[in-house]
Amino acid sequence: MFDGVGINLEISVVDLTTGKVGPAKLMRGDGGWTVGELKQYIGESFNLISSSMRLLILDRISSVCDVIHLENGESSLKDVLFKGGVFSSHKLHREQLVVPTIYVSSDPIDFLEKYKDSLMYKYVDFHFNSILLDITLPPPQPEATLSATNVTEGGTIMKIISMNEENKRKIKVQVDKRITLAQLKKELVPLIGVPPTGFRVYEIRYNNEEYKMEKLDETLIDIISGSKLIVRLGRVRIKLYLLQVNNTNFCKYMMEFIVAVGTAVREFKKQIIEEAKVQGIDCVLELDKMRLREKRGVYPDTVYLDHQVIGASWETCYVEPLKGHNLNIFILNCIAGFIFW
Fold it and tell me: Which part of the chain is the Ubiquitin carboxyl-terminal hydrolase 47 C-terminal domain (predicted)?
């Protein structure tokens, strides 16, 4: 019935080594072809091996962005490309109302994988179900690292498209809109260097107003591609007490300090020294001759090491001046020796 009817197709070749979905190129086809014949023609036109070729299309009938695998080589194009009477309308009006885009890969290794396990499926699925976000990050903490793409067994979750080279605080990411806010925060952890509980995510809306995103179980499905987000470190209010072990009044209130969650202990100590000078607090504090300790009641407890970070649950803390250099490592060695004994 449709034999000999010329049709317009768009062919997009997917590079499985990079995950890049190539630009769609117009190709003239025949409505009477089978999927196998289409593969043969694409192979000749784009210099690809048809025997290891996968063809995917977007399901235009489904309300979600599902992709369909054109697996059966005997299926006719009129059945798989023009559902819902679209081809009949084409015949009636003598013009093609829809130009299908076919996503193509030809990789002999990936071809052997089950469809849903293949890189081809994961890349195209991510292409259809992802959004672009412009994210402003806080200054990176010591534990921050850079990861261009996070690929899990289920597919790509987030990919960094670009990054401001000057301060690395502004990034453009492509992210799966089906993930939750909790998952997005988890993906941002390596870029920020603090745990998910240590920062908040805000969406910048009209008039540059910041809307706090709070529902961790909500997906990003309602966020428009191109939206701007800003990440701010959470802040905690800590009461600081001066610990003077050889003084009768060994517990002396110093000040209340508001600090960003995720700040390294060593950096926090620097801030304490500066603020103590500003407030004129009568004590001598030197960076390598002081330590921070947890305060339980009036008793000093855990020693916080320089590489540790401020947690959201911190409330009170001892600042302990030392006569010698910081004894953190010595204490840890003593504890280890005691446990061994």
Answer: 237-324
Handedness of CA 7, 10, 11, 14 (dihedral sign): negative
Smallest CA-to-CA distance from 67 within 17, 123, 107 is with 123
Of the candidates 187, 213, 233, which is a domain's last residue? Answer: 233
Q: What pLDDT is recorded for position 339?
A: 38
Q: Does residue 1 belong to any structural domain of this protein? A: no
Helix (H, G, I), strand (E, B) or coil at 25: strand
CA–CA dist 86, 106 (Å, integer): 29
Q: How many structural domains are present in the chain?
A: 3
Same domain, 210 and 115: no
At CA 57, angle to CA 51 and CA 63, rounded to 5?
Answer: 155
Please tell me whether the overall predicted TM-score, pTM, comes out greater than 0.70 for this model: no
Question: How many angstroms separate the CA atoms of 35 and 188, rounded?
Answer: 42
For 14-66, the pLDDT digits (tens) are 999 999 999 999 999 988 899 999 999 999 999 999 999 999 998 766 556 78
User: 3-state class of 37 per DSSP?
Assistant: helix
Range of the domain at 172: 130-233
Residue 110 in tokens: 């990936």
**Domain limit, last residue, from 79, 105, 127:** 127
Cβ atoms of 194 and 139 within 8 Å: the answer is no
Specify whether 210 is located in the same domain as 262.
no
Q: Which helix (H) or strand (E) holds 314?
A: none
The CATH number that applies at residue 135 is 3.10.20.90
Between CA 289 and CA 297, with CA 291 as vertex, the angle to 5 degrees is 140
